[in-house]
Inverse folding.
């Protein structure tokens, strides 16, 4: 076999010398006229981004409940709300790890319950040190995730079925672990501090400012590189300033408000940090982009050499570990584990939170930040309804409606804009008649 | 590459049966690099099966595939690709939810380096520059932004991105299966232009098409399949449409060079 055949791929991937380049080294994009984006156009695109709708939902929830009770936006209540949202955000993040790859994990609620129960047993009954218990909890989450993922990936059984079985089996293990008492209290100080500790005022402000600086410098770098390559998708400076200003007000203002009741809750900062880590992995690494590729078109990913099955398996393991983190937060918040830990509507709320946050159930679309914003929407509604003394049935009805509404709004923002602006443009350019003529489809397709 | 004469992929007496149906009945075809070979034939003539054998989707029951004279066994698309044979199927294998750069570099991402060690962090800037140069080199000018998702591109643009991907992977032979079947006139012209660029760069192209106008526009050679065999190979300059159609339907005796 000749060298030319066996070894053509060892060249660096960046070197594309195949076609004889006539214009040496000129960037293709440089030939393109740089299309300046209008403020309105860029704003429209921003609003149509997955998950942005959930930010508006948070604002609506805040206004609606603040009008009913002035307690809602009080420092103490916001602090409570962020702590209450933390486990839901964690489980929603766990769900994202598999949803992004077109899978689903119905066992995550039970996974939360079983890991909390095991943690409680280890600490209270066996007298283990808290960190040993935490490590074992995470290991159990990973092991259960690996077991389910293995059956799904190697045995080619649908995730729906496997994790439905897991949901029951883990619930059984949870009940068995807790025994006849139905609950184990945990009085370990470090564990409790997870949900009671708050950042010192100075540290909170420092983090808020650092996040803001990181955001601004990141956007500035992107604008510079977009300018250099002539990319047309850069946002106008005015919009960037507006976004940065809003972010700054929320970060610094929010910290100042929270500082009045002791500071930013530690657990919320930790959850946001974990979400940030996962988001960075998804956006900055090849494996992270492959997660989106698997969610978008698994066959294309496979043909491109992406290890689809390994990635899916890893997704289920990650989901298990993150669910165990959720179990840990409940263990701290409830000061123990009970038969109802991780039960009830937690699983469905987590899926709802992810979807409200703009993560598509069909895979490949959305950002894991949606897990946090979606959890704040649902947590905010629950918190507000509790404050205004509304009964549980009302809560369920409203939450159900909100999940559907959020997705509807998201879908309208994404497609409705196109449809409506498209027809408006045609009307303005006087093509309305032609649109009604016999061949509208072909004309539309060509115009795209 | 060593010897100019051997820069080609050869199929020799390839047979493929599906139960009692014979899809390929000893098909032989030589596809030289640096030329555009069109593959035509009626439905059921065996074109698709031939492409599947060449792309590694199917293994032939009998016969031989040779790359530059060396026998090769294409038992998976990855093996075929490692021999430089890339097939662009009609679904194009692109991810709609990812952008142009990500699709071009899928599975071969450029990483950041620190002190000579590859970090697990993507080097987006390098990939964007490389992608822009690649698209420029193969004459693709209609894609506005490399950061736009595939779903926002037209059919012709998607086709050219898929071709660019094959070029990036340093393909020696690109197989296009009905690349313009679903495209409008303008978009087809764009694809035809890209095919010409590939030929000039010394890449072989096997173009499966029903569109004789397109074939006469871009092809150097026209191979006609009938009943599972390559019955004639014409020089595109020295043949008219009527003769090719005659060979396709079998109305006239094959006049081309039997391979």
């Amino acid at each position: 076999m000749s060298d030319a055949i066996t070894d053509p791929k060892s060249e660096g991937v960046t070197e594309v010398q195949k076609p004889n380049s006539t214009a040496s080294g000129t960037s293709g994009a440089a030939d393109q006229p740089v299309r300046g984006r209008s403020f309105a156009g860029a704003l429209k695109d921003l609003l149509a981004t997955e998950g942005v709708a959930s930010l508006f939902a948070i604002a609506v929830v805040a206004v609606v409940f603040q009008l009913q009770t002035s307690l809602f936006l009080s420092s103490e209540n916001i602090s409570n709300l962020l702590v209450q949202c933390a486990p839901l955000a964690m489980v929603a993040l766990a769900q994202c790890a598999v949803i992004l790859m077109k899978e689903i994990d119905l066992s995550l609620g039970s996974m939360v319950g079983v890991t909390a129960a095991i943690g409680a047993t280890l600490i209270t009954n066996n007298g283990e040190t808290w960190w040993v218990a935490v490590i074992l909890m995470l290991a159990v989450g990973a092991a259960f995730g690996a077991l389910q993922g293995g059956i799904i990936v190697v045995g080619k059984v649908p995730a729906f079925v496997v994790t439905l079985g897991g949901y029951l089996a883990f619930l059984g293990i949870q009940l068995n672990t807790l025994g006849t008492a139905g609950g184990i209290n945990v009085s370990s100080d470090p564990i409790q501090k997870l949900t009671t500790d708050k950042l010192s005022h100075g540290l909170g402000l420092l983090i808020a400012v650092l996040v803001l600086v990181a955001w601004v410098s990141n956007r500035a770098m992107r604008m510079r590189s977009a300018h250099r390559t002539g990319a047309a998708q850069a946002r106008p400076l005015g919009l960037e300033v507006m976004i940065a200003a809003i972010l700054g007000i929320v970060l610094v203002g929010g910290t100042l408000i929270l500082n009045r009741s002791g500071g930013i809750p530690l657990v919320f900062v930790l959850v946001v940090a974990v979400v940030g880590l996962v988001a960075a992995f998804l956006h900055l690494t090849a494996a992270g982009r492959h997660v989106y590729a698997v969610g978008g078109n698994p066959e294309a990913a496979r043909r491109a050499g992406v290890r689809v099955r390994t990635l899916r398996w890893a997704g289920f393991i990650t989901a298990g570990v993150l669910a165990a983190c959720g179990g840990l937060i409940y263990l701290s918040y409830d000061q123990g584990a009970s038969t109802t830990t991780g039960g009830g509507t937690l699983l469905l709320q987590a899926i709802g939170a992810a979807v409200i946050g703009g993560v598509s159930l069909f895979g490949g679309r959305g950002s894991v930040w949606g897990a946090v914003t979606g959890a704040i929407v649902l947590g905010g509604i629950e918190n507000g309804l509790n404050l205004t003394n509304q009964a549980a049935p009302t809560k369920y009805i409203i939450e159900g409606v909100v999940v559907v509404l959020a997705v509807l709004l998201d879908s309208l923002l994404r497609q409705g804009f196109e449809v409506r602006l498209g027809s408006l443009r045609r009307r303005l350019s006087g093509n309305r008649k032609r649109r009604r003529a016999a061949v509208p489809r072909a004309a539309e397709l060509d115009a795209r | 590459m060593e010897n100019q004469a051997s820069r080609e992929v050869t199929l020799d007496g390839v047979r493929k049966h599906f139960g009692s149906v014979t899809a390929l009945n000893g098909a032989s075809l030589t596809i030289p690099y640096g030329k555009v070979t069109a593959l035509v034939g009626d439905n059921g003539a065996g074109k698709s099966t031939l492409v599947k054998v060449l792309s590694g989707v199917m293994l032939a029951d009998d016969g031989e595939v040779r790359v530059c004279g060396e026998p090769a066994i294409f038992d998976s698309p990855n093996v075929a690709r490692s021999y430089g044979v890339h097939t662009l199927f009609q679904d194009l294998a692109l991810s709609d939810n990812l952008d142009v750069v990500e699709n071009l570099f899928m599975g071969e991402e450029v990483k950041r380096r620190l002190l000579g060690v590859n970090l697990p962090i993507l080097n987006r800037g390098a990939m964007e520059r490389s992608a822009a140069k690649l698209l420029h080199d193969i004459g693709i000018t209609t894609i506005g932004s490399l950061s736009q998702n595939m779903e926002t591109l037209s059919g012709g643009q998607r086709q050219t991105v898929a071709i660019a991907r094959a070029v990036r992977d340093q393909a020696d032979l690109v197989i296009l299966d009905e690349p313009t079947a679903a495209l409008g006139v303008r978009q087809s012209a764009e694809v035809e232009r890209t095919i010409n660029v590939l030929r000039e760069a010394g890449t072989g192209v096997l173009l499966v098409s029903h569109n004789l106008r397109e074939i006469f526009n871009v092809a150097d050679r026209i191979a006609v399949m009938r009943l599972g065999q390559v019955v004639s190979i014409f020089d595109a300059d020295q043949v008219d449409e009527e003769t090719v159609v005659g060979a396709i339907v079998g109305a006239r005796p094959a006049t081309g060079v039997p391979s």
Summary: Chain B touches chain A through 64 residues (CB under 8 Å).
